């Protein structure tokens, strides 16, 4: 919004891209399994052997036991959902346990858990209540502790981390009315004072924990340089105001709101990292911050598996348990195989983050996107398996004397995972950009329409040199009979991943060669390549996890191999379909139809509804309270 309260004109597409590109981490300082996948290199050594589970530290185990007991005794998910509030005693209990400082180092009063340990706790809590996850995760996955740990000065850490670990709730404030997926529109301003402090003005939307937070990390733009910076802002400073609490389809107790900053004086000591680094800080924070979501999704999916298995085994229709009817049996097998892969994806991404010697930005993005989408399918299918009881609320089931299984609540709580912390589309755009990075750095000049011919010509020798070596190498690989023998029954699947990796990189190269700079507009096409890469990552994670269990002589190893095999078979069919759709599709036809739809050419299709326009007219008419006849006339536009 402008100072006059008008909506600011959105920036152009080119400007939005420029801002995103500037905030992008351009360097790759450490290797990345997925980056190599998109380049056609199956670098199994980067993820195999699968990271070990967290060692059984007594302190960590004791915390998990306490948390389990706390959830069972103190947390009533249905009541929280019904009343739209996490009781203060629950928040206090979590704070007493140290749950707000799980990821904060011990030297600052936190518990100093590793990412993998943190994810284990997140899974435990997620299996019980989504609202608690929103509270804990918005605080320490993306709220003040995470950017502070990554970018804060020693003074800032000493000042704030102990307070945050004790339970001072924090929040992450980036979104505004005009800033959803596109930060280029950011309008909250941070003007410098002569003393070097900042004056903050603006309004943040959908800030999770915002209504109860003591501390915010706020992204704001300098009016003079237009650059974006990040600040730690205290709730009780003059000018900070919670304007409204927002309410949603699910996560009914999320403390999410609109936060207004009016001439808030922020001391220069509260600038995080450096001026102009705010957007990069937000993106880097989300790189590991968004690892919470894959863990949450995996845990919810596991809970759904438990619900589906139990119900499908005990509900008898048409003479046998519904799980023995082929249609439901297929759902159950796919569900179990996918749950195994989802947990593998989450554990692998967290394990790689803990190792610290891998670049995990692509793995984290894929884990977030893939687990949230697969999880949503599982939630949907669980509702189907439960039939009418899936659609019924837990309270209603309880009132009828049936077990209060909250599939309806799980579904409402789950859906947002595909939208926040980077929507599925934005994740795919991000992954596609990184997947093309090496190609763009080699051949970018050649396909850039804005560059003069001389620059294009100068790029040719480099391009030829790179592709003359790279391209033939994408045809010959290690997908041979004896390769990957250590994977035993899964070696066939691992060989497929290696072959498909090369196939994928050739497909990406062909797309670039065919469409040049126009490729960035062909999202449907690019996203299929992203999805193949994501499926290959999930297959690799599942195979490596099963193999690690086999090598560790886990009693469940044979069953794990079975699930990994079923999962890989499913993915191979899906990947084949995706490759086929890269070769032949209806993208252009559908895009043209969508444009005509937006232009109003298909308004005829919406006839026969009570339209939103009519509703608006009726509301306006009711406000004026005219006679009944006038009211009907006003609403329908007919006498
Ligand atoms: C419950 C909840 C909690 C939240 N918590 C926080 C929080 O704590 N802090 C915070 O800062 N924000 C928070 N958000 C905001 C959240 O991160 C945004 O909703 C999200 O970034 C998407 O923005 P948007 O909803 O405005 O969608 P839009 O950006 O308006 O997008 C609409 C649709 O278009 C798609 N789209 C957009 N751009 C493109 C493109 N270039 N190509 C293809 N598709 C595109 C999107 O994927 C989406 O499907 C929260 C939101 C909700 C609902």
Could you characterize what this model shows?
With about 650 residues, the protein is α+β, with helices and mostly antiparallel strands. Helices cover about 55% and strands about 10% of the residues. The chain has 25 helices and 10 strands. The chain has helices spanning about 15-25, 35-40, 60-75, 75-85, 90-95, 115-125, 130-140, 145-150, 155-165, 280-290, 290-315, 325-355, 360-385, 390, 395-400, 405-415, 425-435, 435-445, 455-475, 490-515, 525-550, 555-585, 585-600, 610-625, 630-635; strands at about 170-175, 190, 200-210, 215-220, 230-235, 240-245, 255-265, 270, 315, 320. Strands 1-4-5-8 form a 4-stranded mixed sheet. Strand 9 (about 315) and strand 10 form a beta hairpin. Helix 6 packs parallel to helix 11 (about 290-315), helix 7 (about 130-140) crosses helix 10 and helix 20 (about 490-515) packs parallel to helix 22 (about 555-585). The model is unreliable at about 1-5 (pLDDT under 50). Flavin-adenine dinucleotide binds next to strand 1, strand 3 and helix 17. Flavin-adenine dinucleotide binds near residues 173, 420 and 426.
